[in-house]
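Sample pair:
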Amino acid sequence: MSIHKSVLLNEVIEYLNIRPESKIIDATLNGGGHTYGLLQKYPDIKIMGIEWDPEIFEEAKSQLADSQSKDRVIIVNDSYVDLRSLVEKYDFHPDGIIFDLGLSSWHYEKSGRGFSFMRDEPLDMRFNPQESTKNAADLVNTGLEEEIEEIIRMYGEESFSGAIAENIVKTRKVKPIIKTTELVEVIMNSVPGWYKKQKIHPATKTFQALRIAVNGELENVEKGVLAAIDVLKKGGRLVVISFQGLEDKIVREIFKQKAKAGIVQWVIKGTVKPKWEEVKVNPRARSAKMKIVEKL
């Protein structure tokens, strides 16, 4: 896994407003793009990188062991929901925190865990198989029809959630749905012809919904962002990049409430989006939305 240039890196560097010898938490280390970018730009800062996925964590650890900046980084295999205890454990009180909530290309292309509907893989979708027990196949094969429908409708914002859930239940009575390709087939048989001709693949929203449900993503974002505001030093900044509307809405609501309560202030009222130059080189950046607050 090579270090990739993370989305909105220049904007992260600009809006974190880093001072000499700052301590920064990269709450979603991933491929390490933001962490490496910050370390190169600021030779005297320290960073704690948090990565929940054990495989990405191991990869990042071995890459950092070879880098010149290794003495300035702590890498932790944990979830950002545990931010409070991690700050205490490592006595690492941050001047800035960044969340990049996007899924890495590694998850789609190399993890083998069924995140992509374009690959024939087991229907798993867990970010950390060592910690989570219930995977996407469990959910699809044992959930009640109403439960599956609600997940697809709420987390995927899918208009055909009812037909898809009904078809899942019918199909699994004959044979369990354990591969991504099997689920894609069920979805394709559940939606009308015109829907298959849309720009977005008909399986996109259902796959997103199952992934969110399996990993408790929305609850985690809420817990993580609230914890981040708590542990941030006064004058410190929190930058959150999200890639889908549901996460962005949670972040916006928390920031609004905390600003109203006088705990944070907006650095920029609204959303920072990637410039066209970045989207041209990295189409994945297209849906990125960044919000920034400062602790009062």
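The mean pLDDT is 89.
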